[in-house]
Write a structure and sequence with these properties.
By secondary structure, the protein is mainly beta. 1% of the residues lie in helices and 50% in strands. The longest helix is centred in the last third of the chain and has 8 residues.
């Protein structure tokens, strides 16, 4: 019989759904965990890419006579047309006079990308317009050959040839109190005309790029890592780990559409030179435009409070190139600085500092030394996903598109499982994939301070704690450690990476009906935890079994 045959619960993160993390044992499902997080989040997926929530913010994505869609004047729609995807779901829009349009009334702010599939009819082009109280955005496209006629007010534009005369037309802009979207038939000179165009599958989403189309019928649709979806994270591993994090806020209002003062660099949004960590062409390219010029980007007015902050971003540059990160405050007084050596791949760099005065500015640059004016003409570096959060370490990326965004705390627990948890004796085993700070690993108890038994990390050491007090801590925990606590009245022991680190011969066992991963209904201080494996046993395993179970 293997050690695992003795287990009452085994959780190897692999199966999840919204609100649920499945355990492999018991097979009845009685040991499955309830998961909550009332916000979207990101993870690193199996392809090593940053994965976000997906969305189509339009209520009727392919029903242009429903909801707030409208055809102005005497124009009209004809459904049932042959589409780009082999269906008969396209529409023919007919403008009986120049200036008639398709219009959608909508109220949004922030960076958005509008994408729609078009094909020429009797009119040879299309104009997409976003009406804003700021700068209107216009995109004029020749539908004969799929070329751009002109654009204004945009961050980026894109035309994708789908085949059979169809093009996906993409317009990205920064929306300032937008009131409506308009689509006009035009000629190849960019002039509004009467005539027909084919249209299908409109999508609106936050961010700088158009992702795969999501159909909507009566309401906006979100997918991917949205509310209450557990995260199986593949950071630095071919095997997933269950990622659990505290609540954090990215205080930077634009994490991808970078704003700020430029010195000796030019900036290109949605560069096609390299794919971003997300796998799209939505990184920002900075190119040094003068020698010995101290190239940098300075971002002002970062709203932070408290005295601990972490600045993080993804950056890619030539191997051996230096890249600097600086935190400061108004007047550019430096509070924190670090230079990093790039390796030619995407790297997530972090700068964490404790301050007596909180930072309000960020500076990034391609500096070879901090004190001199550096920069080589033509030198390039790419940046994605800037984040500023309060706390001593960086958490997973939180995208922002015009205002700060908060990712809510993850909660993962199984309640009413006293028949699975050993009540008078038992063993907790955990294989880690990462952690930060004084992290609760696993807590057994009833959600009160009267009955609990906790396995946790205190200042980098493994420890256990119960309602009767701290038993002790010992041993240095690493991101890939295997730990086990075997408990029994007056006979408990703690193992770390194959070694016994603590014993207790005078302990008592409280009531333990629930299981909390990195969380307790009463106890606080939830931090970051990545778990590769959790197993519970209803018996106190032998010391030899504990050594074998925790050996790396």
């Amino acid at each position: 019989m293997s050690i695992y045959d003795k287990s009452s619960l085994v959780l190897i993160p692999s199966g999840t759904k919204t609100g649920k993390v499945y355990s492999q044992k018991p097979v009845s499902g009685d040991g499955d965990f309830t998961f909550t997080r009332s916000s979207a989040a990101t993870r690193v997926n199996a392809d090593g890419l940053v994965e976000k929530e997906t969305q189509n913010l339009l209520e009727y994505s392919n029903s242009f006579t429903s909801g707030d869609w409208d055809d102005t004047g005497s124009s009209f729609f004809t459904s049932g047309q042959s589409g780009y995807d082999g269906t008969n779901n396209a529409w023919l829009f007919t403008a009986t006079s120049a200036g008639e349009r398709i219009q959608l009334n909508i109220s949004k702010t922030g960076v958005h990308t509008l994408s729609t599939y078009f094909k020429k009819g009797t009119a040879d082009g299309v104009r997409m317009r976003v009406d804003s109280l700021g700068t209107d955005a216009h995109f004029y496209v020749n539908l004969i050959d799929g070329t751009q006629i002109s654009a204004s007010g945009e961050i980026a534009t894109e035309i994708n040839d789908i085949g059979s005369g169809w093009y996906r037309v993409v317009l990205t802009s920064n929306w300032i109190n937008v009131s409506n979207i308009r689509i006009y038939p035009i000629n190849t000179s960019g002039v509004d005309v009467s005539g027909t165009i084919y249209i299908q599958d409109a999508q609106l989403e936050q961010g700088l790029v158009a992702r795969d189309y999501i159909e909507t019928t009566t309401t906006a649709v979100e997918g991917g890592i949205t509310d209450n979806v557990p995260r199986l994270d593949y950071t630095d591993s071919s095997c997933p780990a269950l990622l659990l994090e505290p609540q954090r806020t990215n205080n930077l209002s634009h994490s991808e559409y970078h704003q700020g003062f430029l010195n000796a660099v030019t900036r290109t949004y949605n560069t096609t030179d390299t794919l971003s960590p997300e796998g799209y062409y939505n990184a920002v390219k900075y190119e040094v435009n003068a020698n010995n010029s101290d190239p940098y980007v300075r971002i002002l007015n970062i709203p932070t409070s408290g005295n601990v902050a972490t600045f993080s971003l993804y950056v890619k540059g030539a191997s051996g190139q230096l890249f600097s990160m600086i935190m400061g405050r108004d007047g550019y007084e430096e509070l924190g600085y670090e230079a990093f050596t790039l390796d030619g791949t995407w790297q997530r760099l972090t700068l964490s500092k404790t301050f007596t005065t909180t930072p309000t500015t960020l500076t990034i640059g391609a500096e070879f030394s901090h004190s001199s004016d550096d920069g080589v003409l033509g030198q390039e570096y790419y940046v994605y996903g800037i984040q500023v959060e309060e706390g001593s370490y960086a958490t997973s990326y939180i995208p922002t598109y015009g205002s700060s965004v908060t990712r809510v705390e993850d909660s993962c627990l199984a309640t009413g499982v006293s028949d699975i948890v050993g009540q008078t004796e038992g063993t907790i085993f955990l294989e880690l994939a990462g952690f930060d700070g004084n992290t609760h690993l696993v807590t057994l108890g009833d959600g009160t301070i009267s009955n609990y038994l906790m396995l946790y990390i205190s200042s980098g050491s493994l420890a256990w704690l119960s309602n009767s007090g701290l038993t002790g801590s010992a041993g240095s925990v690493t991101a890939s450690s295997k730990v086990a606590l075997a408990y029994k009245e007056n006979d408990s022991v703690l193992y770390l990476d194959g070694n016994q680190v603590l014993t207790d011969t005078s302990n008592t066992i409280p009531s333990l009906p629930n299981i909390y991963l990195n969380n307790n209904a009463t106890l606080s201080n939830v931090l970051r935890l990545e778990t590769k494996q959790l197993a519970l046993f209803k018996t106190r395993l032998t010391n030899a079994e504990l050594a074998a179970l925790t050996t790396i």
